[in-house]
């Protein structure tokens, strides 16, 4: 059974944004501060404020297309919020249970695996070669991780 387009839109957007934004924030805060408290605060902020922000962004984007029913717009909005919030919250678990370096590594593995699996499902749904879709998405995630690590290191050196 295929997922409704409005639900798929919200779910895929929220999941992807939750992984990329939360990992970028975690890596940047870790390299800039090394503070578990800062990373936990950042994850909670992403889970709430950025989930609302993304949900409103999808809501307005869907309305702007002027091709969706009110119900479809709200389904995309709710699924964006829920998936972003829930996936972001999964990253807090290793931070609470392990030292920060281990937690960041575990979170990176988790994020890459979840985005990879999502990418495989999307590729199959679109009848594309999975390795190309997976590679494209994971390269973008890797670029975000590298960039936020560099920015965090620079901030730590400049202001720490």
Overview of this protein structure:
The structure is a single chain. With 160 residues, the chain is mostly helical. The chain has one domain (5-159). It is 89% helix and 0% strand. The protein has six helices and no strands. The N and C termini lie far apart (53 Å).
Distance between the termini: 53 Å
Overall pLDDT confidence? 96
Q: How much helicity do the residues have?
A: over 70%
Looking at the structure, what is the overall shape?
Answer: globular
Strand content: under 5%
**Over the alpha carbons, how many angstroms does the gyration radius reach?**
17 Å
The number of helices is 6
Biggest sheet, open or closed, and with what strands and sense?
none
**Structural class category:** mainly alpha
How many structural domains can be distinguished in the coordinates? 1
Q: Are there runs of 5+ residues with pLDDT below 50, and where?
A: none
Order of helices and strands: HHHHHH
Please give the number of β-strands: 0
Quick summary:
This protein is an all-alpha fold. The protein has one domain. Helix content is 89%, strand content 0%.
Quickly list its features.
globular; mainly alpha; 0% strand; 6 helices; 160 residues
Would you spell out the secondary-structure blueprint of this structure?
Layout: H1 5-33, H2 36-65, H3 70-90, H4 92-97, H5 100-125, H6 130-159
